[in-house]
Amino acid sequence: MEKRKMKESIKFTIIAVILIAIFCVAITPITFQNDTYYTIKVGEHIAKSGIDMKDPFSWHQNLGYTYPHWGYDLIHYYIYDAFGFTGIYVTTCLLSIVLGLSIYFVNTKLAKNQVFSFFITIGVMYVIRSYIAARAQLVTFILFILTIYLIEKFLESKKKRYAMGLVAIPLAIANLHVAVFPFYFILYLPYIGEYLIVLLGEAIIYRKLECLLLKLKIKQTCKKIGQEQKLEELKKKQKELEDKIDKIKVKRTKELQNPYKIKMNKNPNVKWLILVMIICLFTGLLTPLGTTPYTYLAKTMQGNTTQNINEHLPMTLAEDTDAMCSIIVFLAVLIFTKSKIRLADLFMLGGLCYLMIATRRQITMFAIVGSVILNRLIVDLVKIYAKEDIQKKLPHLIGTSLIIIATLALSWHLGKDTWKAPYVDESTYPTKASDFILENIDLGTARFYNEYNYGSYLLFRGIPVFIDSRADLYAPEFSGKEEDIFSDFIDTSSIGTFYGDVFNKYDITHVITYKNSKVNMIITKTQKSNYKELYQDDYFVIYEREDQQN
Asked: pLDDT for 488-543, tens place per residue?
């Protein structure tokens, strides 16, 4: 019986791994995002010149740059140098597969159910599909789900190998994606919070204070002569109070063993987990970036870049079906069933939900980390309500066949258009316009005004830019400049400021812009005499300023 069960488990694991891999490839876009282009170019600069903490790609002079994911950039440059865009795409597919399999195996190990782990993995990858891209965040997604696994296993066994893994992860983050370094430590807080709550619950502070006061009174009474009767009364009162404390302890122990909704556990290994976390705090120093892991996020929050970049904006739940459905599922399980949740999981869920609503891109962490919590809740739910072990019933031939057909159909539906796409979208990035610039314009004297979304592609082609998607570089908190280049771009592109004033401020000589941009529409309608059109295609137009003071 055990051998048969083992064989069934291995068969399902093989099928699950293959299906997850196919699904992950299906949702991985072939067309690259803007960050991919500067990633390659920054990696090339590091390979040739090292980390100089200065930006070499903008025509703005002496901008300070922190190289926040220098390790990732360098690796991707070497991949691009050896295999081109195909190498970058294949690498992204492999990282997507590793992420999917990490979610699956972590869920399987912690929730002890293969079937639910498979469905939840597919659901998580579907929810975060928009964030699967050739960006450093894809690596940190993998590291964060592994962090949850290592924390849980360390608390369970206190084995050194899990502690060593927990120390290695922030070291990797500090060199691969420094922006999320502080988030790593947030993952520890729910476990520590649960431990402290249980400690406070055991303390019975108000009774113990009362008991302490009685002891002080007894001490004072002992020193006085003729107070024997009062002393006896105090001792009797002390005994009654201690008995009450013991009864409360027994009652609370029973409540902890069979709670109504929230399970609490005083795990003594949390003390060692705190020590591991303190050690991890120092891993941010093991990077060529100096103190950047400790200061980067704070500086980013001080500026206004996060208020103007779509993925950093607060989430509107009514507009995000995936997030809304995820929250409803959690609430339904917690409110309408007998399933119980660990206090640490409740803290984690609440914190991630807040982060997701505050910053929409945190739906990724809500989905990835929340998958473990949801899996545990569902497994508990099935144990309470199911008469038979669902794990034994589902992976039979018919059930497995249905899973295979459904997953392949969904993969085909999501991937059929993606697989036809090019690496570079000519409607988004100025491929032909860049060819024209490199062939006809002297880049040594030209100062281009360009827009945020395709600036990274221009610098990838070797064209110095006004701005690109490294938003922090152009904010005074990072650049070391008095000018707020990022705000000037936002005001110009939205016509909050007359673009001519900004062009004069920065001595702009040339303009490259989308044909349907507000700036181009105004130039075309009112200022055409001051701008000589050098080039246009279906999507972009290039001007040379005739009079740089107009």
From this structure: 898 888 888 888 889 999 999 999 999 999 888 988 887 667 889 999 999 999 99
Q: What is the DSSP code string of 63-103? A: -B---TTHHHHHHHHHHHHHHHHHHHHHHHHHHHHHHHHHH
User: How many angstroms separate the CA atoms of 512 and 250, rounded?
Assistant: 74
Give the pairing type, strands 448-449 and 510-514.
parallel
CA distance 543 to 536: 9
SS3 assignment for 510-526:
EEEEECCCHHHHHHHHH
- Residues ≥6 apart with Cβ < 8 Å to 266: 195, 198, 199, 202
Residue 168's identity, in one-letter code, is A
The tens digit of pLDDT for each residue in 432-450 reads 999 999 999 999 999 999 9
Beta bridge partners of 510: 448, 544
Q: Cβ-count burial of 7 within 10 angstroms (0-12 exposed, 13-18 middle, 19+ buried)?
A: exposed
What's the Cα-to-Cα distance from 65 to each of 52, 193, 469, 519, 533, rounded to whole Å? 8, 37, 13, 28, 34
Cβ-contact 110, 375 below 8 angstroms = yes
In angstroms, the CA 486 to CA 210 distance is: 61
Number of neighbouring beta carbons within 10 Å of residue 518? 14
User: CA-to-CA distance for 99 and 478, rounded, in angstroms?
Assistant: 32
Measured in degrees and rounded to the nearest 5, phi and psi for residue 465 equal -115, 160
Contact 550, 530 (CB under 8 A): yes
- The amino acid that residue 65 corresponds to is Y
Q: Which two tokens stand for residue 92?
A: 């992204």
Helices (H), 267-362: 270-281, 292-302, 321-336, 343-358
CA pair distance 364, 360, nearest whole angstrom: 9
Q: Is the C-alpha dihedral spanning 27, 30, 31, 36 positive or negative?
A: positive
For residue 179, what is the enclosing H or E element? none
DSSP state at residue 32? P
Place of tokens 């360098």: 74
**444 near 26, Cβ under 8 Å?**
no
Give the tens place of pLDDT for each residue, 85-134: 999 999 999 999 999 999 999 999 998 889 999 999 999 999 999 999 99
Read off the pLDDT of residues 259-279 as tens digits, 9 standing for 90 and up. Answer: 667 888 888 999 999 999 999
What are the beta bridge partners of residue 544? 510, 532
Burial 38-74 (b: 16+ CB within 10 A, else e): bbbbbbbbbeeeebeeebebbbbeebebbbbbbbbbb
d(CA 514, CA 450): 9
Q: How far apart are CA 293 and CA 282, in angstroms?
A: 10
Decide: 377 and 333 in contact? Cβ < 8 Å.
yes
pTM higher than 0.85 for the full model?
yes
Backbone angles phi, psi at 168, to 5 degrees: -70, -35
Strands (DSSP E) contained in 312-365 are 341-342
Both tokens assigned to 166? 């927990």
